[in-house]
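Quick one: structure for this chain?
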Amino acid sequence: DERAQPQLSAGEVVSGLAVEELVGVGGFATVYRARRPGGAAYALKFIPLDADVDRVLREFAILLKLRHRNLVQVVAMGLYPEEAPEFLWLQMGFVEGERLDRYARTRNLSARDVARRVLEVARGLAVAHAEGVVHRDVKEANVVVRARDGEAVLVDFGAGTYEEAVTVTRGVLP
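Got it. Here's what it folds into:
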């Protein structure tokens, strides 16, 4: 029983963004890189409407609260396809770079380099915590080292929550 994924090809347009390529498929969402003509790149995260849409709405609400250079930024949310929606999508800033786990494996990082990346993630988390947001899934795969300046950016707030949020966890585990 495979989860539904949007089958988008390069050049297809979603809300004015031209899809460039598939970035990744997780247990919850499918992410594509897309771009406005002549503009910046964005991540389009697609979640099937028959999935836990409350989680996506919570992630959107979380990201609306947060603005910091070490946190991914949300831009918009919508439905795809517009005529007969099957997916909810989030448009976020695309962090051009490498996941922290890959970045660390391909470089001989000094203790100073490691401390800098940890400090950058901690700065982002401090902003999130000041807004009452908890990420709940901080790991190397959810940190991207931005290519243009080498700074760490925390992404994927899909498991996150905040103080006023409705509980969306299902099952016996908290």
